[in-house]
Amino acid sequence: MTITVLPREAHEEGFTTVAYKTDGSSIITGGHDAKLCIYDASRSQRNAEPKILQDHSEPILTMATHKASFVTAGEDGSVLIFRNSTNDFEKFLVRSTTPVRSLSFNSNGTRIAVATDEDIIRVILVRDISKVVTLMGHSTHVKSVAFSPTSDHLISTDIGGDVKIWDMNHTSGAPQCIKTLSGAVRKCASDADVLNTIAWSPDGAYFCFAGKEHEICVYSSKDWTQKYALEFAHFNDIITMAWSPNGSYICSVGKDRQVVIWDTTKKSDVIKYENTAGVCGVAWHPQENELAFTDQKGRLLLWYDPIDISKNMPHPAQKALEEMDDLDRLFEEGATQPSVGMSLPHNSLVDDAAEDDGDEGAIEDEEGEDLDDEGEDVDMLSDMGDFVIDDDGAGYAEERQHRSNGGGRSQHTGVRGRSMGPHHKLTEQKRFQPGATEFRTMDTTIKPPVPVEGERRYMAFNMFGIIYTIYQNTHSIVNVEFHDQAQHRNFHFTDYYHYTMAAIGPEGAVFAVEGGKPKKKEKTTNEEGEEVEEQEEGVTTSILYYRPLMNWANNAEWTVHLPEGENVVSVAINECSVVAVTSAGYVRVFTISGLQNHIFRLENSVATAAHGTLVLFVYKQGGTGLNGEQNLEFMLMDTSTQEMIQKGNLPLQKSSQLTWIGFSEASQVLMYDSNDILSILHRQRTFGQSYWVPVFDGKTTAKEFQRQERYWPVGMLRDRIMCLIIRGNNDSPYFPRPPVDDMELRMPIVNLETEAGQLEELHMRTRLIAQHDRTEAVANHQEDEYYDVLKEADAEMDKALLRLIQIACRTDKEQRILDLAFALQSSRSMDAAIKIVTHFKMTNVAEKLIQIKEVWVWM
Amino acid sequence: MALPRSHQSAYTPSEIEFLAGEEDIIIIPTHSMPKLQFISGSFGPFRPPLKAKVPLWLALMLKKHHMCNILAPEWLSVDNLKKLLNDEETVAEFSPLPFHYMEISMMLLESAPEDIPNSEQVRRYLKDLRETRQSKARAGLAVLDDRFLGMNNLSLMEINEIRPFFSKAFLEMRKLSVEDSNQYSQPPA
Questions:
Q1: Which intervals carry biased composition (Acidic residues) (chain A) (predicted)?
Q2: Domains of chain A
Q3: Which of A462, A464, A484, A722 would best serve as a mutation to test chain B binding (most B beta carbons within 10 A)?
């Protein structure tokens, strides 16, 4: 898409700021030459000369607009208010001795917050400028201020990097600072070009500002915590930013000369424009798909249609129309109800729709409330309705979206205001290959979309090795790398089939691809020696390809073509077999040498994983439940004996998904879900006795570290989870390959912050893992190998118990001491326990312990 | 050692490098190995992909044999160095860098540049940092007096650079001041 940007010389070179009047009729710019220029914003008048106001004596730094008036201020320290209709100077609001850095109107335009080069903020009543409220609390000069759209809160930043949130309707009467985010923004000089703007989303649910690392931090105004960050687009300081009038986009501009538009639902950048100079001001047109920005050369640049609506992207202002009308209606006393048609003057289709229910709907003015429309349910289910295809090119998609939003919000409550809760989504559990990621950038111009050339993804990532593929249009390059290179060499090969799934184990790697594509044109040489392109008949078949890692025998690799119409959907490899689950509902088991060993039926497979001689299958038992339950079951099988070891269901919370399955180093079955909880299958060797135990909570762990990160599991050692740490908004790792981290397991029990809680957790966890190890040792006849480990675990448990006994003694919990003593493993620990208890002079408890010990010895 | 006389009181750079070799660093072994026994202690066992903390000298040795990848310390990243350089230029104090930052970064950049993301940029920033700090240290010497010289966060290599001049000058100044005070304390009768 082409970017249409119209530059206009507006001011002298230097910092320039821009704003739209709230009705969108004019653009106001203020520049280094102390002039204000007022441009006609209509597209037909785009080249008309601006009206110039010269009321300021020094450079203009900031502006704020409201319905009836706009205010400007600058280095001369005076805040001037102008009438919107005539552009006439009305009065001085403030005369300050220091430059004014930021201005913000409250929602009804009665008050204005002013930040000057002082550590106080003044809130001035526009009608009577002698009524001033000062907000004190900043320790350095205030840099920016912003009223929330509801005027309940004010947020300010200072040059020391603090962000303060003020409650303007505090119960004490005076505004109060309710939260300080210290060091949230970058420190800067008070005359720095960086504005540290706080931008509120139009509905007041979120606000954002530039963080320290050239990213935009978006905070929720509900609990004042960061929800997400928009990053990796700017490479120098962000100067300012603005939300689009409907909150769908954020436009940020920076010293790196870039204008970046971000989509707030996808949380990624949509489009960028690179200017020839640093951009220092930005404003969205209140109604149109238009953006105005100013640069450090004093130019005003108008960007027409920055959002490509034809690509099903929401219009940046459309939804906001009715919302602004709402606000206006609330504050316009005695104003007549505007007709439904007038509130949406730009969308004739919506007009029609609104008129349909005009009879019953006009009074409450709830457009789009008619839920009887077919397809409305579908709209409600999809969260934004952005799948609606604009097939007739008449803006139908927007209309649908608009209506679905309107319908969603006023569904039962009748209360206006966008409902912020997530729409209930029925997302079916996706089929996945554990340890695989997806291509990031796809070329969507081709149907079906293919990855961009050179794009890569992981096909398998486990404790043994990594397989990744690089897409090269006509072929792919598959790379196989190992963590432990003492045993295997890394290798790569050219893959003409574009394998889609892979699995790796100590014996070898297995690759598979679905069939069903038309056969490739093959160049063959005919009898006359000419190259002839031949199109073979039919479609390709699904292929399973095994490549050994240890080859003492020749020709150990093998390929299997499945019958036409049957596709491999998931593969796994363990020490003795290759397992392929197919779309025909078959599980085909091959031995490592390629011998067909077994076949059985398994429907609705979701994922498979393998380790040792075990294979874990996860499959759907029935469909996704209406309330978002996934109804997943698992089956654990030993492929060497073809015995089923365990079968049961997967505990997944409503609307959470399974994201990974795997095995620990000691063959314990693991699952990781979208709520970031790692669970182990306890007592997996006893049929019908197994259950899942949570051993790690990723969200709590990240919160403890106070980091914005997620964990992408790779495997588990005896007592540590091995994972990749994923920062930012990504949900999967990318390239270059991040290092594998190990995190301590921690069961989510209560009172973890106390010493006793931690010891209890340690004891419980060690007990569970030791119990598993013991059964595993028996099952695999490896008692000797496990002997040391288990002994160590016993000692560790006793140590934890003894410390718990000591804590219990200190707090006089006699009953608990007995409980703890019962759990001790060795008689030496029991002696120690008796010693501890006697030390605390609890003779009756000591007697009881001696009794226990006697019974023990006797047993 | 063929050093100018004035420098003989100081360490040689290679001696300092040797000292820095004792600093711990995190590696990701690429070969599994049993516990390694050395005079200074035992390290390991190494089990890829589990990270391990070893002294720098061992990390470099393993790296030389392609048996590990070194994880660059957190401070040795472009973003951090950029920030430090910025601070260094604006704040009067020396920015907090590890005591052996120069030696560690030098050794890592020399023998494991592929393990450091954006190593070229890192190298450039380090050079800038070093120059800024050097000029600062020199400026600091201007206020040298006979009592003390306070410069926090100076690294060993940097101390070593100014040590010969500093100790000499300091002693000279002390001598002068003793003479001064002698003059004042015993006014001629």
A1: 352-376, 527-536
A2: 15-330 (2.130.10.10), 353-358+394-517+539-748 (2.130.10), 756-858 (no CATH)
A3: A484
